[in-house]
Each structure stands twice: as C-alpha cells, then as structure tokens.
Give the backbone structure.
Amino acid sequence: MIWMQDGARRNRWGQPRSSLKKEAGTFPRKCQPPFYRFLFALGAVALAASIISGQPPSTGFVATTRNGEWQSYTGDTRGWRYSPLDQITAQNFNDLEVAWRFKTDSLGTRPEYKLEGTPLMVGGTLYATAGTRRSVIALDAATGELLWVHRYPEGSRGAAAPRQLSGRGLAYWTDGRGDDRLLYVTPGYRLIALNAKTGQLIPSFGTHGVVDLKVGVVYGNGKPIDLETGEIGLHSTPTIVHDVILVGSAMKEGMTVTTHNNTKGLARAFDVRTGKVKWTFNTIPKPNEPGGDSWLNDSWAINGNTGVWTQITVDEELGLVYLPVESPTSDYYGAKRPGNNLYGESLVCVDINTGKPKWHFQLVHHPIWDHDMSSAPLLADVTIDGKPRKVVAVPSKQAWLYVFDRITGVPIWPIEEKAVPKGDVPGEWYAPTQPHPPAALMYGRNALNEDDLIDFTPELRAQAKKNLERYKWYPGVVYNPPIVGNVNGLLGAINMGNANGGTNWPGGGYDPDTRTVFAQAAMATIAAESVAPPPAGFSDLEYQAGVVGQPFRVREAAGAGTYADIPPPLPARGTASGGRGQAAGIAAATPNPAAASTSGGGRGGEGGLTVQGLSIVKAPYGALAAIDLEKGMVKWRTPHGDTPDVVRNHPLLKGMTIPKTGQSGSVGLVITKTLVILGDPQVTTTPEHPRGAMLRAYDKVTGKEVGAVFMPAQQSGSPMTYMVNGRQYIVVAVSGGPYSGEYIAFSLPPDAIAK
Amino acid sequence: MKRPGILGAACLVLLAVIDVRAQQRTVWDGVYTEEQATRGEALYGEHCGKCHGATLQGNGEGALPLTGATFKSTWNGVAMGAMFDRVRLSMPQDKPATMTRQQVADLLAFILRANKFPAGTSELARQTDVLNAITFQADK
C-alpha cells in the first residue's frame, strides 16, 4: 500500500504500531488532537486511494481502558479485564457506597433472575444488555439515569432461541468522527447496529441496521438452517477491532440432543460499517481441508455444534484472532463422530483479514466430557527465561492454565500427551491419550483423590468413601470416560474438571503490572458422568446423558423458556389437572430414593454428590488463583466466598471451628492498579451481614482480602470499573434465587476520595 | 391548627405495634392449611416433579432441591412474597408464568409441609405484598 512509504514499523493493517497503540485509548470519543495527527499521517494519498477503492481507511479502533473508560466486554480486545484506575484502594474499599442501581425487571414481559452482563462505559454513558428481551440500555454513568432503551421483539424466533438470557453485553465502535456504534446479538441470532447516542438502528448497516446471522448457517453437508426455528444463538458479545466485528455461535445444551446432525458452529467477521460478511471460519473442516481427517467415515457431514460461545480475543498488531471452540455433538456421547474431531475443544488462531487458520491446539481429543473452551483467551507480552514472548493463556474448566506462543501455537511449558482410561459405552470411539499441562499450572481441582474427600469428621469421610463405591472412579485421573449408568449398579464416572468445574464463562483476567493471570475456580463440582438410552423417538443417538432406571430428563440451558415473547398459555383455573402433555415417551418423575444423591454437576457449595447434605469433596469449594505468567506457576490461591450456610449451620458440625471454605460457582473479576475485585457466587446469612453476598477486593500481590462490601444478592455478571467526573465506579450485575436482575454501581463518598 | 390527640397518638403506636408483629411472622407460625398443601402436592406432581424430583431432591444442576439443609440454607431469611414471585414468574422453566397465583400459593404450602413447617388454620395468601410479611426462617 502506498501510504506505507514513511518507513515506520507497521502492523498488518499498515498502520504505525507505536502510535496506534498509544492513541487507541484517547481518540475514540472526542476527536482529540492525536487522532487528527494520526489521520494526517496516513496522508492524502491514502485517503484518495481508499476513496477510489470505495473503502474508507481503517479507523484503527481498538477498545481500551487506558482513559478510564471500559470500551468492550473485557475492557480491551485481549481479554484482560484490567483498568489502571487507582482511586479505589485497599485502604478505602470498605468505604464504598451504592452510587446508583438499575433494576431490569421491566425490560421484557417478566423479570430475569440470571443477569450476566458486564456494561461498557464510553464518554460518560454506560451501555448494557438486560431483561428477558435482551434490551439495550444507555444510562448516565454517574447517576444511573436511563437515557434510552432499545428493544427488538423477535416473537416466536426469540422464543425458539437456544440461548435466551439477556446476554453478556455488547460491543462499541467509533470512527472517531462522530459515528459511534453499538453492536449486539439478539436471542434470535441477529446482529444489530445502533447509534450509541440515540439507540436508533443504523440504516446503512445490513438491512436497516440488522444482519440476519442465521443466513449462511448450515447443518449436515451444507443444508441451510431454518431462519425461524434453526438452532443457533449467542450469549457472548461481539468483539470489534479496527473495523471488523467478530461473532461466534452457540447451540442448546449438548447433554440431551435430538440429533447428532446439529447446526454446525462457525465464527464470522463482518464489516462494521456495512454489516457485510468478510469471512467465515467453519469449526468443522471438510475432508479436503486441514483437520478434515480427524472426522473418520465422513462423520463431518452428520455432526454439528463446535460453536464458539465464549469471548473471542484479538491481537490487533499481529492481526490474529483467537477462537475458543466448544464440544461437538453430543456432550457425553460421540459414537457418530469417530476421530479426534477438530476443531472441537480447540484453541484456533486465524488471520483477521482472511479467517484462514494459522495454528490450533486441541485441548481434549474426541471430546465426551463437556469441557468446551469456556474462557476468553488472554493475550500477554511477558519475559520468560530472559526472552520476550508473546503468549496466549487460557483458563479452563479443567482449572489448567494452557499457555502458548501466540504466533506459533507452540506450548510455552510442555503439554504432555498421557494415556487415559478407555470406556466401554457401546459404539463410542475413545482417544487413547489426552494433553496434560504441567501440575504447576493447575489452579483448582480437576481430579479426585481420597485426600480430597470431606474431612470434617472421620465418620463423614467414611460415609463419603462408602458413597463412592457406587461410582467408577480412578484416583487422580482427569479424563474418566462416561459409563452407561444403572440405578442398580454403577451410577456414573467421577470427573471434577468438566461441565461446571474450574473457570466457566466469566473467564479470568490478566494483570500487566504483575504479569499475572487471575481466575476464579469452582472446586467442588464433582460430576458423575453417565449415559443411558433415551426414550424411543427422542433422538437418533443411542445414548444420552442419563442413568438406566431413572426417568429421562431433557437438560436445558440456563434461561431456557424465559424469553419475553414466550406466550403464557391461559392458566388452568382452580384445577390441579391442566393436562398439558409432555414430550412423547418421556416419563414423569417417579419416586426413586437411589437417585437422590447421584446427579452430576452440582451447585450450592455442596456439589451433586453429598454426604449428610454436605459436599462429598472437602473445602475449598471455590477459590481465586493467581498464576505467574513468567514463571508458569500458581503464585497463590485463596478460598473465595463466605462459608455456605449449610456448612456453618450444620447440626453435625456444631461447635467445630471451620476455616473459610469458599463457595462453588462461576464468577468473573476486574483487575485495577492494586486490586482484584469479584463477588461471592452464593448468598449467605452470617453474624456479620444479613442475607446477601459480598463484593471482595484482594491484594494483587499477596492474595490477602483487603476489603468487602455488601450486595443484596450474589454476583451473576462480571464487574467492570470506570472514572467519570473524577470518581471511580465499580458496576456489577447481581441476581439469583428470589432476587431479579440488577446492576449496582459502587463509588466512594467525597470524604473518602479526599483522604 | 388542631393537634393530634392522645388517642390518635395511641392509635398510631398500636398500629405500629401491629405492623411490627405482622412483619415478625415466620413460616413456623402455621401460615398454610393441610388442605391447601394437599392441593399443592397434586400441582407439584404435574408442574415441578419432572425437574425437582418426586422427593423434591433437585437434579443436581439447575433445579435445586426443595427440601433439606441446602434448600433451607438457600432461602433462609427470604420474604415469602419474594419466593412466591420467583416461582410465579419463572416456573416451570419450560412454561414460565403459567400458573395462577392461587396455584403458586398452594404449591408453596406443599413445599412448606414437605419441610416440616407446621400447618395452621388460615391459607397461605396469594398476594405478594401480604406474603412479604412472612419470613422463611430455616430454624425456629
């Protein structure tokens, strides 16, 4: 390109590296002088060339927190969740007060009880998604006053959506000259562009502001999905860098599916000005493409999923996109897809201009545990063994931090292929080995040893061991394949680091000050994985999640059935027999005492397998971990969350002194100059506070808890921070149990700021 | 300007006392009837048991237990009106907000009975604001 004549070091976009990075934080909102200088530097020739080609020059927009704003879901495009703000400190954290709050009940036809969003803050306005319609709201960031609401009713298409919550949020973009946009994905899988100032659709984007993301989505050997009922959606936000929008894909829960031939996952790039597709990356390669041979017997053509449901991150300097890919169909049974199944459960690096894969690393071969890839990849520049390295680090459900050279994909610390147990589910195909990162990078609990069992009393430990006789269990094994569970025999295969373990969708964060990754990990999520034949006619797969002898139950995603336009049928008045039928062949629940303690997954700090109502796994039930990204080891780990009420009030534990156990659950964090801040995933009622949860601050270096403020409900969406009018705010989404969705803003009172 | 008389002040005090007493009711005070709980049991089988289980044990995932230590800990200290609205507006998961207020009140009566809270002589109300005067208290 001719405008590269000045000889400056440039990135793939043809822009000067140094100036771009420095100025990205300052130009977007108000066209400050550096931006004009930057534009000028591009030169009139470049402008002329772009006019001739019909393409405006790249704005070079890169979201940032450097100016006290929070311009994207993770603050930046690198997954960091870091802000350099330092008004709120260890010394004054306990002085924080509620500055304003925004209840989301009226955004939709019914309240939402799982608000997962992280807002953005740009130019004094806070933007978020919320409510059972996934509305977009703009609030005054200092006062919480509602400035505008955008709603896009989708009727039956929204009602059929596989991912119906209000979502994690949205993405912001500006050309630096007054064209400020918000981009988000509706429950019905439409990409919508709004004018950030007014909330109005942008007519020149897509069709009157809307791109139908279902167009171009396929199943099988390239058959288009139905635009109304086709199964695809997304909770995560688009990622925007320069003038490119990146959008992933998600399907229904994959534990009980009606067909292996499900919608195929994909990631796409769109032009932020026009909404036109720039490229599509299909996460299931065809036979003639790289990775195509990992689907034996042409099974690529009859399988789906492999969505990209968590946040996508981008290195804008290298022009590389990092795609975290989930499991193929189905979660626990893969008989119709022999082979390793790329790019299932893989980190894939693609070129931002073409979508062509540069490298990939499969975390789990032939996935049959629902590990997915849960977390935004974290991009960091660190020094390892005296050498500067560009790395990508990924927290995981396995509670391993996977770390790679982000240019080559080569693991920074060796990831060993180790033999794993083979299962015996009829028809299943088993990978003989699985990748195991070093033990020093395990920050939670991803395998069960006898020493991990409940240890409050010898009697409880003995009971735990007895309970485990009903399960297939290999001490210390991370990948224990599902079994055919039977209510009269073995009930399941014990796994720790899958479905709900380790770090889930909130992901972790990276601190450039201390070159440390912070991540919360659920540690009591013991799961008994088993499959059983579903009722006749339910599925074309012979086995699905379940236990022989137990009633079959369809597993739904969180938020299923809550979309605002799901019509409430007329209530059956005054009678207990409304007569609403169930799906054919699916039995109603029948009493089954043996089933009571066998279910997998697990919430509430006690896990699914319980002893006297207590977790069969000992504390900590959940923790915050700090992982040194230059040494490749866990620096510290501390229990996160109050000891659950069920433990503190348990009659068998009366009079015992129990150290803080932490809580199981999934919560995200925000990192500031000195603190890591995250809320409790559960509510408690303690002598210190009424029913509620605490938003806690930890010292980044020591891991010591240095402050905590009360919230009326548990954290359900990850916090963010920003500065407006000289005051630093922290905004966090809370909800759960009887508490419907609410964004709460905390800030310091004037006298605490003056201190 | 007429001052409020002593009688008026006394009335206010009395009202305040009544108000405080009303707010102090808990699920230990016989807030539902046996007949209501029995109606609720049938509704439970129809609408809830599929996920929450025949013995109210939950399914280990999204559907939490509705009995036992975990259940009581999870809801301890919550106003019954809040519990009522949570169930009324978001349950059952596949058909939210399809039960009448009366049906939801009956269901809660059944759940209270299943957790060994005593029955009384008057039914659990179906008005959220009235129910908010009753606290779910795990232990007496």
